[in-house]
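One example given next:
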Amino acid sequence: MSDIAERARKALGKKATYGPDVDLEEYEVEAKPHDEVQSIEEVPEEVRRAALGVGVSLEDEVGGAYIQMDQTPVVASSSTEGIEVLDIATALKKYDGLKDYWWKLVPVDQDKYTADVALHPPAGYFLRARRGAKTIFPLKSCLYLGQTNLNQRVHNIIIAEEGSELHVITGCTTPSHVQRGLHLGVSEFFIKKGAHVSFTMIHNWGREVEVRPRTAIYMEGGATLSNNYICLTPAKTLQTYPKAILDGPGAVASFNTVLYAKEGHLDTGSEVVLRAPGCSADSITRAVSVGGEIITRGKMVGEVPDVKAHLECVGLILSEKGRIDSIPELDGRCGGLDMSHEAAVGKISEQELEYLMARGLTKDQATGVIVRGFLDVEIKGLPESLRDELRRIMQLQELHGGA
């Protein structure tokens, strides 16, 4: 651990490659403690309501649950055989520091945000699917930032062992009275041979919350990943750029991003490195700006022949103040590759609006119908029950055009 701490200290002043810089000293370090609860039923009502807004219904059957309030894990439980859910501090003690996994994918000195997470007591979740284990009901986690102006730090480890199947929904949220805060999240995924992981992250932050997730994924042969990110409510600034390494034959990764920005600055993207024959990856983004600034980045790196990769970003601008900047990048390093990208930014068709308005909808209602349809991306690798749940979340949002 001493080497990790030393590298982190040296990086405390290191700005991130992308996104506006955040002054860490503006945010509080000390979080108020919360009591652990014995069951999901005892989770405070305000947390349950906030979790429901990001798709984490604690009333439905779940395969396991992790709830964190500020820096305190209050629930960590599994109801599925072969699936382990622990808070990360407990996992580090139980598994001798998680030597094969802890800070192995995300560099601790990547930037000031990873360094800051490393230099404070660990919080976050440890999810593990043992060999051949499969989740029937999804694991659900809620990272709840309830203290105004707090710097919430999270470090998550997800391990899907050979032949396992893991479905996870993570909701990150603040209650209505918390508008300002900082969320730093480090997540490291290890998806082993033939394992399948679907991971859906839904953000619902206050208007003055700044968000800096740092994610890396390592995939072995035959592994599959469906990584889905949804942000439909404003944050002050968001910057995330997960990286996946496909290091075994036939590994498949799919990134799906849905963004709706009334205001704020969202800088999102992903990088996928294809290192083995038969690997494939796609990254699809749907972005709507109603006044916010959206930057979408995508990079595919083909290192060997016989790999396929596709980038796609389509955006709608519904306000004179809106901005969408799409930056696709293909990096082919040998022959025998199949790599492509597609990008488009436009506006809603007047014909579509007129058609719906002629059938009795107001302009805002018609715009909302069109925007929901536009953002309803077909997400690969999800059970139908999860697809239905994501559609329900979309229907709860008030999506409409700007002035």
Observations:
- The radius of gyration is 21 Å.
- The chain has seven helices and 20 strands.
